[in-house]
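Team,

Forwarding the record for the chain on the shared tracking sheet. I've put the sequence and predicted structure together so nobody has to dig through attachments.
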Amino acid sequence: MKALVTGASGFVGAAVARALLARGWETRCLVRVASNRRNLEGLRVEAVIGDLTDASSLDRALERCDALFHVAADYRLGVRDPSELYRANVDGTRNVLEAAQRAGVRRTVYTSSVATIGIPSDGTPGDEETPVRLEDMIGHYKRSKFLAEQVAREWTRTSGADVVIVNPSTPIGPGDVKPTPTGQIIVDAACGRTPAYVDTGLNVVHVDDVAQGHLLAFERGRAGEHYILGGDDLSLKTILGIIAELVGRRPPRIRLPHAIVMPIAYLAEGYSRVTGRPTRVTVESVRMSRKRMFFSSAKARRELAYRWRPPGEAFTDAIRWFRENGYLR
């Protein structure tokens, strides 16, 4: 069996590639010319140059492939040019699904996000049946992923293609090269650069468990269905406490109200626009933090036999990787 993994040089995509190789799959990886291939070093994969906006490169990449794992996405918050997110996440998804049909790919697993899942107003975890609309999406990243998932759903309905959608929650673990916004939280906390916190929460899962969930979706998922691949719901205070304990620091004890953090975010974004330097505090991220992003993976557990390890193991592996690769200075 041969699979193409898009976004394989990235955090989740590389984990999916490793999982496929461990199962004995021939694994081809779509990479851009400028992609950082650090996550693919030492892996017996076939790297193919291409881009989600280049249909001919997608045709070449999918030639003789049995499966497509479309993991690639532009995951940035507070981006200056939102059109970049829509080109990569929405148009790119449409392009690769069309190419997969032309290539006769047996099944596609599309990586969406819990960003597209509704959050109940009563504080209970969201699931695949929680009502949600485009208007509920905060910021361009969430909107672009919501629209991309709609592309995948519509494509399945109209073309008859076999597409299974997975919605990872907040993956952490080894290989977070950029790092992702969540990975940056871990790095900052481990380095003692997080003196305070806001009242929010995340569903945390090991990136390798998410990768195994992708393979389970290919093997057992129902076409047209979507499955949350998550782990444990944790408050940000708890997350920072776990990180502090692992690195031998005191956890932050000051809770900042959102009303105080929001003006800081506006100032930080203004400074970023003037100086060209990226900011870690964005208006979009503060708006998102007003809700606890808690989710249930019961459907994936029930239908896919999906499982996840305790969050402490995920944080331990993430911090070890960041330390070994020089991030914790």
